[in-house]
Amino acid sequence: MLTILFDGIAYGMLLFILAVGLSVTMGLMNFINLAHGAFAMVGGYITVLLMQKFGVPFLVCLPLAFLGSALLGAVLERTLYRPLYHKPHLDQVLFSIGLTFMAVATADYFIGSSQQIVQLPEWLKGRTELGEGAWMLGMGHYRLFIIAVCAALTVGLQYVLTQTRFGSRLRAAVDDQRVAAGLGINVNWVFLGTFAVGSGLAGLGGALGAEVLGLDPSFPLKFMIYFLIVVAVGGTSSITGPLLAALLLGIADVAGKYYIPKLGGFVVYSLMIVILVWRPHGLFVRKGGK
Amino acid sequence: MHKRQVFKAIALAVAALAATQSIADSGTFKIGLILPMTGQQASTGRQIEAAAKLYMAQHGDTVAGKKIQLIIKDDTTIPDVTKRLAQELVVNEKVDVLAGFGITPAALATAPIATQSKTPMVVMAAATSSITQASPYIVRTSFTLAQASVAMGDWAPKNGIKKVVTLVSDYGPGIDAEKYFIERLQFNGGQVVDSLRVPMRNPDFAPFLQKVRDAKPDALFVFVPSGAGAAVMKQFLERGMDKAGIKLIGTGDVTDDDQLNDMGDGALNVVTSHHYAAAHPSAVNKKFVEAFQKANKGMRPNFMAVGGYDGMRVIYEALKASKGQGGGDALLAAMKGQIFESPRGPMFIDSQTRDVVHNIYLRKVQRLDGQLHNVEFDVIKDVKDPGKSK
């Protein structure tokens, strides 16, 4: 039972890393970016290709995946996304879903559509077991690693958003662009940086997730629903909202599939419906928020 | 007078054009090959395309005085598209044979078109038992999951595996595999502790595998489409299930030759039952594998490739036997009952069910010349599809 809880937490943490970038762009910049999964896929492929073709160690690949997708995010923000900030949400949705399909086709064309397999280093492969019987806790080392990375990221992000100068500039830019610009904040740079970090986080999530979730060109479409559920349930105004939502969904999904395998796939959706009926704007809403 | 001459000239020209058209038509034999070249099952499409082209390169493109024309279409793994492409091929291109079909729903969607147009339809990949019953014009050269799983249900109880949990993907072939494996296992005195069905698009196998682990069976029987097999196997090892004394068994999709090498040493000693392995020790297969790898930059042929290769053979021989004359019915008659030596070993197209009858091998993953291979160690001869016995 503890093992199930542990697996659920690890899975939830993974969902969180994948989705947190989306909640940043969607919640803070008020831009509907359905192409978020495409950045995650880019991170995954960077990792897989570096490891397969150039023998780069796994741990080195992770920051490279972050940087690679952040750079791509920055370039696309400057060229494609910026003109769309003031367009209606429907335009943004259509644009970004189009971008997703293009990413899927591109990956399919250049890399091929078969599943990519990541070979983890030996020390991440094993498993540690504590206790006996029903209360046995089995922890896969790789899942422990995911949880550690995710916890570090959460603390880091929370710190940046609430304690640093960049964080307060970002919040100011979001609340009122004109006044912020009048105060001498370069809104364009702040948004560019935020978008790049959001994309980079997606890329890191993709790199970490390739082992557990599998990686093929349909990745952005397959997991788009999960990202959206996390953001919808968690709300978009903070880091803690999506974190708790992702943990809740991860645990519910894993436990649902374990205890009632016949209904396995539906537990997450039922939970989402219940939560959204109860709190239509997500679990955590900023007071007076949009 | 003048007008009439112009009219005559036009009529003559049209007649001449029509004549050349019909000559061209009777001189070519068109095979419409519909495959998933993009999307989830694209590796199936790539393998079959490579194998079909290899067969044509080896056996020439003129048979019984007709020029063979291969028209390859990509159905992107979506059955609606398969159906539309089949319609276009039959109506516009007037193909003589439809072939390919990567997944079961694609084959089933096309079956009515084959029946209405009396066009033979050669299924080279899809493996649900019921497909050949969907139209009297369907001939299959791939395999059925019932064949592969029954063989495993025979082998396992005789080798100390009594308690089994099954884990299959929740769609046609998975349900076939589950049903026939369980039936045969119980017949042989084995016991099924639990049967788990995994949604097709399942992100994480952890909860299912944990459930298996807690049930403590002798073995876990797995069918998932090739591709997902690697994920199951890795998580199986990560969970330490091999150390807990649980064996991993399944149909050959789990250790697909196309991906086996990337799976790493964790795959060693996994036992599967299937009709083809690239390491099958026969002269015909050695030649096939060598030629295939030479033509495709070292890509290893898998069971999909052999289905495509044999499918082309069945079409070629049917055309030869019907001497290039006659339409769909004559071709179909000539396809039924073909017996020949395939790279997979001896095979036979049963004339009653139009389904393939072949040997099913039990294989264990081992290292051969530095590469991982499915090495055959036992065989069950001439397995007819158990799904047709009713």
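qc> Chain B is about 45% helix and 25% strand.
qc> done
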